[in-house]
Design brief:
- The protein is mainly α and 358 residues long.
- It has 2 domains: 23-228, no CATH class; 232-358, no CATH class.
- The chain contains 18 helices and 2 strands.
- It has helices at 4-7, 42-56, 65-68, 75-97, 100-107, 115-132, 139-145, 152-165, 181-195, 197-202, 213-229, 234-242, 249-263, 268-278, 282-299, 304-314, 318-328, 337-352, and strands spanning 13-14, 27-28.
- Strands 1-2 form a two-stranded antiparallel ribbon.
- The longest helix has 23 residues, at 75-97.
- The chain is globular and about 50 Å long.
- The relative contact order is 0.08.
């Protein structure tokens, strides 16, 4: 029996042969590298885009907490975190459904507070297309250097979702910023924890295809995902992190601090509890918060919970923390792991001198 993906002209994508297509069930074979698209004409490319939108579309229900099996929480917290997921899905769906030149205006229709998540979703979709289409497509690079530039951090994180979805080693064929490409592995870790919490969070498994510092960046993304998996609960996040080997704790706390700051959903008291529960690793929480401040400030979509979290974790306001991340960014941007970790370390060192409230 032909799969539905084959029936619409995408034989390199496997979907279940019966029932509704679920985007997270798609698998990619080596046929993705063949000449399907090389023989297409312009009208057929339009047909291919419509088929891709049908096959790859993310249904909103896939970000529902009950579907994902995440921890229970207050309705307001769940509503906010699910809204972030729906904004991501909206950006993804727009990127596979509309021509590239129309994508920017469509994403600008997303409310400013949620726009970063939409650009993250678009980054994933464009990376998927770059990885699936033969040749040297540069959708992600063009997007990140153009209309996606204010959200360049989120675009790189979204590209990592595509690497995870297609089970690719870094960096696939993606053309990414030499330094910010490590954020793609952060996105890789988020994806795995978000969609496979039983394996990635509960069983503390790491991908065998990653090695060295790649695994640390993966853990930074998984720490971000804990904010969703554990529904923004300081106590549950701390218990989850305690279940990992001690050498992984610092990166997990860094990711948790980033998500707590960027995504929100916790009261000031809960944020203070996170800082206390992190103990001697609170500097890593602060570094993650500073990264979130940099992303929000660059995109000019700062919201009140960003200011609250940055104040508690870093002892600074959002724009001061963002300026710190800019000031400490390595000048060479050679993109090796040492460059990226030197950046993160420099942020921690400077923040350690800040007067964080007791």
């Amino acid at each position: 029996m032909r799969t539905r993906a084959e029936a619409v002209g995408f034989p390199h994508l496997r979907a279940w042969p019966a029932g509704p297509i679920r985007w997270f069930d798609l698998r990619v074979t080596t046929a993705a590298r063949r000449d399907r698209f090389e023989r297409t004409t312009k009208p057929r490319r339009s047909l291919a885009r419509r088929a891709a939108a049908l096959i790859l579309r993310i249904p909103e229900r896939e970000v529902d907490f009950e579907v994902r099996g995440f921890a229970p929480c207050e309705p307001a917290v769940r509503e906010l975190l699910e809204l972030h997921g729906r904004s991501f899905a909206a950006g993804f769906n727009a990127a596979v459904a509309v021509p590239f030149e129309e994508l920017g205006p469509q994403l600008e229709e997303v409310p400013r507070a949620e726009r970063g998540f939409a650009f993250e979703g678009a980054g994933m979709a464009l990376a998927l297309l770059d990885l699936l289409v033969p040749g040297r497509p540069r959708r992600v690079a063009t997007f990140a250097g153009g209309i996606g530039s204010p959200h360049v951090y989120m675009v790189h994180v979204g590209a990592g979702w595509a690497l995870a979805r297609l089970h690719r080693r870094p960096w696939g064929r993606l053309e990414l910023d030499p330094l910010l490409r490590w954020l793609a592995l952060d996105g890789y870790g988020f994806h795995e924890a978000f969609f496979r919490p039983a394996e990635t969070v509960r069983a503390a498994k790491q991908p065998t295809r990653l090695r060295g510092y790649e695994l640390r960046a993966f853990d930074q993304g998984m720490g971000r995902a804990l904010w969703f998996v554990e529904a923004a609960s300081a106590e549950r996040i701390a218990r989850a992190i305690d279940g990992f080997p001690p050498q992984r704790h610092a990166d997990l706390w860094s990711g948790a601090g980033l998500a707590a700051t960027y995504a929100g959903g916790a009261s000031a008291e809960s944020l203070e509890a996170i800082r206390e529960l992190a103990g001697t690793l609170s500097g890593h929480v602060a570094q993650g918060a500073a990264f979130a401040a940099g992303a929000r400030a660059r995109a000019r979509n700062v919201v009140p919970h960003n200011e609250t979290a940055v104040g508690i974790f870093c002892g600074l306001d959002v724009h001061a923390a963002a300026a710190l991340t800019d000031r400490t960014r390595p000048a060479a941007d050679e993109g090796c792991a040492e460059d990226y970790e030197r950046w993160r370390t420099a942020i921690r060192i400077e923040l350690s001198a800040a007067a964080v409230p007791a």
